[in-house]
Design goal:
The structure holds 2 protein chains of 2 kinds. By secondary structure, chain A is an alpha/beta fold. Chain A is built from 7 helices and 10 strands. Chain A is globular, with a radius of gyration of 18 Å. Chain B folds into 3 domains: about 1-45 and about 290-410, no CATH class; about 55-275, no CATH class; about 470-660, no CATH class. In chain B, the strands form 3 sheets. In chain B, strands 1, 2, 3, 4, 5, 6, 7, 8, 9, 10, 11, 12 and 13 form a 13-stranded mixed beta sheet that branches. In chain B, strands 16, 17, 18, 19, 20, 21, 22 and 23 form an 8-stranded mixed beta sheet that branches. A 4-stranded antiparallel beta sheet of chain B has the order 15-24-14-25. The chains are: A alpha/beta, B alpha+beta. At the A-B interface, helix 2 and helix 3 of A face helix 19 and helix 22 of B. The complex binds adenosine-5'-triphosphate and magnesium ion. Magnesium ion binds near residues 47, 48 and 169 of chain A.
């Protein structure tokens, strides 16, 4: 199987008054296309940081990062954001929907930045609303939805650009266990049927075991 | 109370940037408003210091329906008072000048552009409020050869000596004048500005009537030389008096109708203008100065509106944040009156700080302001009108900017919140549009007025005003040939000419011109020149030729306008025209050139060439040669006028001086428009900062979704650019209508091209993008991970 991303000695730190704080240290990872990875570790161990770096939302200080064959560490900001926008979908614990937009508009938002025509956008949105069974909610605002529904919208929004890689930072963290189960079912389905590569951060052993393998972080290092 | 104040100040500090923006905006606009109001007040106050102002009227006349001007014949008021009972008194004023005064051994040369002289009726000090320091208001002149000086001129002539009763000799027939009074210097806001005054009786003694030989000054209806002021009994109807005067003039002129050719007497009209109107309105009643006052008052208003809008916008924009605090307070039991009071108190604190700063600012810029505006205005914090301005501002800002947000804050609660928010966003946008409209109108106006000023200054005058030195001939007049020969030895002097024109301006005119086919008395300006004048000034003939020197006294030249108005287009040359009881043959046509202010159209002119000696020299020099030319001229001056101080002027500078008031106004307009636009940019900056701040999270999310920096800047600017677009649609027709109206006051004016609007639009868009762009860029390049975390 093809490698989707690969890091070598990836290290990130911040300098503050008390000296240098390492957020990530010497991360060496290789993830194949179609894998479903779970990242675990205690709070503050650098899970979110790792996800942001892999998703190119954040930078790193040392080491190499290759994404679908492109050396990210040598790319310019613009090229990196192109790479990110076409290949990566993000899902957050706090959903991060835009409050002023309806469900349909929220899902449509990423397509605006893909230069897609309005007709195509609408078709794509209708398609995904249908697939996620939320057609009836399309004109509601995020505040009018339950947490599980909001996260469903968040996932739909992440998937609408057909990303190769889905990054999920504690997607079930704010949900009850039943809602969480449903989201996890969806992840398995996406991974198996559509071949989407997924990296999820989770605190739940049970959820973590739904993936193919688990990466454990401690103080910014991979320990397992 | 004290508690509230403490919270108010704490709130201002917590919202540092917005408080600073609000305070700067309010300070600058308050200061600017007051400065403008001072200017407006100064203009408005002209001639209002006369105790009798309600009853004093200036007589304007119009001959041949050619528009009113403030000149009258000497007999008009004498006959008027005799026959019209409601005329209590009259005072005629004529320009009158001495070139020098001699007191004992000392000779003082008078620069009549600085120290002006007049001959006046003895009613002068009774009618007008010009206090005498020494002398008798009722009987200011002891005899015909009396003179009254202003305090400062008396000082320069007599030093510390008491001038009363002293005799000064003048260039006027070498007569002595005796000082019978000292008047206070005339206030700057007086239209009448004189430094020395002689009795009308002196002029009367020397009067020679050209119109009907033998008539005295008091009987002469022919020469329009005097400004006449009438004092009426209170409650008089001016239109009746006007009619009566017209009838008197008609009756007295009737015997001489034949002098005006077959058409007879030209139509004659009178318009009485209250003395307080003469600075603000043209003699025909159109607003001259008043238009400027309105313009500046409008700008002051706009600036205040813009600042208030800034305040309202920034306060309501922050309501989201504040309403939470207010909600908690309400929950704690504060009633809405208390809440409003607290919000008002914040506004008051902010206003108080702004007023203090504005006052300091005014005192700091006052000297510069006076210099630019050419006035002598004073600001005193405790004066009546400063109090009014601060009071009005306080009221406006409190009502507009304090009450509205306060009521909103008080009424907001969580259930209504979202609905209210939408309404207030629309309100805010409407205010921003108003602000943009103001700015765009100001930008267009500034462009148009600048273009108009440049147009006038660059306009082809019909002669070449560069590198010409003018000076009075005095003793050189009788030695013209010798002076010319001597001057022409200097290679830097390329031409020498004389004329009766002073600085290319003439006030000499006549109505008594007839020609074959003349049907209405037409006003002709008159000019006398030597044969070199046209060459030196680069004035061209369009037809015909100059008369030969030998027979010059039988020929005249006409300008193109005269040919047109006399309807001689067919064959103007060799026409015979008659005036001053003499006949002249037209030998040539002169291309039109300007001999009055450019606000006036070119009038018909008769030009007469001869070898006679005229009072004014015109010297053309090479571009580099002014210094050496002046040296040569000074040598001549010392030789022929040893008793006079060397005085000269450059023609182009004289010309600039003519437009000084316009140029000053233009400069002020720039400054005020600039300030207004800056203040609205400041508000915009605050608003976009706020927008970016509230949208930080959204921007972060959008970047995660793939938005580029460009997308984000676009998103933030688009909102404002749409508002700019709407504002343009409103502002352009408004500005066009208004400016087009204003330009009608100029005889020579530009047309407002579409490109002016394109330019104004571009300027506005660029300014908006610069203002919005900075914050937008900051927001767009922020790290999305951090942005998302902020909540
Ligand atoms: N910009 C920063 N400056 C300083 N420290 C930071 C910065 N960003 C993150 N950290 C620190 O780095 C560590 C890792 O943070 P991160 O958010 O990746 O942890 P996490 O594993 O996701 O924890 P959690 O399970 O609580 O979400 C934390 O201790 C955090 O405080
Ligand atoms: Mg985390």
């Amino acid at each position: 199987m093809n490698t989707i991303l690969k890091t070598k000695h990836l290290t990130k730190w911040v300098d503050n008054s008390s000296g240098r704080v390492f957020l990530l240290r010497d991360i060496n990872l290789e993830i194949k296309q179609g894998e479903f990875i779970s990242v675990m570790g205690p709070s503050g161990s650098g899970k979110s940081t790792l996800l942001n770096v892999l998703g190119m939302l954040d930078t790193f200080n040392e080491g190499e990062y290759e994404f679908i064959g492109q050396p990210v560490h040598t790319l310019k900001e613009r090229q990196r954001s192109e790479l990110h926008k076409h290949n990566i979908g993000f899902i957050f614990q706090a959903y991060h929907l835009i409050d002023e937009l309806t469900v349909a508009e929220n899902i449509e938002a990423p397509l605006l930045y893909h230069g897609m025509k309005q007709k195509e956008r609408q078709a794509a949105v209708a398609d995904i609303l249908d697939r996620f069974n939320i057609v009836g909610k399309k004109d509601l605002f995020p505040a009018q939805l339950s947490g599980g529904q909001q996260q469903l919208v968040g996932i739909a929004r992440a998937l609408i650009v057909k990303p190769k890689l889905l990054l999920a930072d504690e997607p079930t963290g704010n949900l009850n266990s039943k809602q969480g189960e449903e989201i996890m079912e969806l992840f398995n389905k996406l991974n198996e049927e559509d071949g989407v590569t997924i990296i999820q951060v989770t605190h739940s052993e049970k959820n973590a075991n739904r993936g193919d393998r688990i990466i454990e972080l401690l103080d910014g290092r991979i320990v397992k | 109370m004290f508690y509230n104040l403490k919270i108010a100040i704490r709130n201002l500090r917590r919202n540092g940037l917005y408080s600073v923006i609000n305070i700067i905006g309010l300070t600058v606009s308050l200061a600017t408003c007051i400065l403008i109001t001072l200017w407006v007040y100064d203009e408005w106050s002209y001639d209002r210091f006369h105790a009798n102002k309600e009853n004093i009227y200036l007589v304007n006349t119009s001959v041949s329906n050619e528009g009113f001007f403030d000149h009258t014949p000497g007999a008009l008021s004498v006959y008027g008072k005799e026959e019209i009972p409601v005329i209590k008194d009259y005072c005629r004023i004529s320009w009158f000048s001495f070139n020098y005064l001699r007191y004992n051994d000392r000779q003082v040369l008078i620069d009549n552009s600085i120290n002006r002289g007049a001959a006046v009726d003895s009613s002068f000090f009774r009618m007008f409020t010009f206090p005498l320091i020494e002398g008798d208001i009722q009987k200011p002149f002891a005899g015909d050869n009396s003179i009254i000086f202003s305090e400062s001129m008396a000082k320069s002539v007599f030093g510390d000596e008491n001038p009363m009763g002293r005799a000064v000799r003048t260039n006027w027939s070498d007569e002595y004048f005796y000082v019978t009074g000292i008047m206070e210097d005339m206030p700057k806001n007086s239209t009448l500005q004189y430094d020395y005054i002689v009795p009308m009786n002196f002029m009367k003694r020397h009067w020679v009537s050209y119109f009907v030989p033998g008539k005295t000054l008091d009987e002469d209806f022919g020469e329009f030389r005097f400004s006449t002021y009438l004092e009426l009994y209170p409650g008089s109807h001016t239109d009746e008096i006007e009619e009566q005067i017209v009838n008197i003039v008609g009756r007295e002129m009737a015997p001489y109708a034949s002098m005006f050719g077959p058409a007879g007497l030209p139509p004659f009209n009178i318009s009485l203008q209250q003395i307080t109107d003469q600075h603000l309105y043209n003699p025909d009643g159109t607003p001259g100065g008043m238009a400027k006052i309105r313009l500046f008052a409008v700008i002051a208003g706009l600036i205040l509106v813009i600042a208030c809008i800034n305040y309202v916008n920034l306060v309501t924009a922050r309501i989201g944040k504040r309403s939470k605090e207010m909600g908690i307070r309400k929950f704690l039991g504060a009633n809405w009156i208390k809440i409003v009071r607290q919000a008002m108190q914040e506004t008051c604190v902010m206003l108080f700080i702004s007023i203090v700063l504005a006052t300091v600012l005014i005192y700091v810029v006052m000297p510069v302001y006076n210099q630019i505006s050419g006035k002598n205005m004073e600001f005193s914090l405790f004066s009546f009108h400063a109090a009014i301005i601060y009071g009005v501002t306080l009221f406006c800002v409190l009502v507009l900017a304090g009450l509205y947000p306060s009521l909103f804050l008080a009424s907001s609660n969580s259930s209504k919140h979202t609905k209210n928010k939408g309404m207030h966003v629309v309100f805010r946008k409407a205010l921003v549009v108003v602000q943009f409209v103001c700015s765009i109108v100001l930008i267009v106006s500034t462009l148009v007025i600048t273009l108009q000023m440049n147009f006038i200054r660059k306009k082809d005058l019909g002669y070449d005003k560069e590198n010409v030195i003018c000076f009075p001939a005095w003793g050189m007049g009788n030695n013209k040939e010798a002076v010319r020969n001597e001057l022409q030895k200097n290679p830097d002097i390329t031409g020498v000419a004389t004329a009766d024109f002073e600085n290319m301006i003439t006030h000499n005119f006549t109505y008594g011109v007839t020609w074959q086919g003349s049907d209405i008395a037409t006003r002709f300006s008159m000019g006398w020149f030597d044969f070199d004048f046209f060459d030196v000034m680069n004035i061209r003939l369009t037809d015909g030729a100059f008369p030969l020197e030998a027979s010059a006294d039988k020929y005249c030249l006409l300008n193109e306008t005269a040919v047109r108005e006399m309807q001689l287009q067919e064959d103007p040359l060799n026409q015979i025209i008659n005036f001053n009881n003499q006949s002249y043959t037209v030998s040539g046509i002169v291309r039109d050139f300007h001999f009055e202010s450019l606000s006036q159209p070119i009038l018909p002119m008769i030009l007469i060439c001869s070898k006679a000696n005229y009072n004014n020299f015109y010297i053309r020099t090479t571009t580099q040669g002014t210094k050496s030319a002046l040296a040569s001229i000074e040598t001549m001056w010392k030789k022929y006028c040893p008793n006079l101080i060397f005085s000269y002027s450059f023609l182009d500078e004289n010309f600039e001086r003519l437009y000084e008031a316009d140029i000053q106004m233009g400069k002020l307009l720039y400054i005020f428009a600039f300030i207004a636009i800056m203040i609205s940019c400041l508000g915009l900056f605050g608003l976009v900062t706020f927008t970016a701040e509230t949208k930080t999270k959204e921007i972060g999310i959008r970047k995660v979704l793939g938005a580029s920096v460009g997308n984000i800047i676009n998103m933030l600017s688009k909102e404002f650019l749409i508002l700019v677009g709407i504002a343009m649609l409103i502002a352009f027709p408004l500005a066009y209508y208004w400016l087009n109206n204003m330009l009608q006051d100029y005889a020579y004016r530009i047309s407002i091209g579409w490109w002016i609007f394109v330019l104004a639009g571009l300027i506005t868009i660029v300014l908006t993008l610069l203002t919005v762009g900075f914050q937008a860029l900051k927001a767009a390049t922020a790290n999305p991970v951090k942005s998302i975390k902020t909540e």
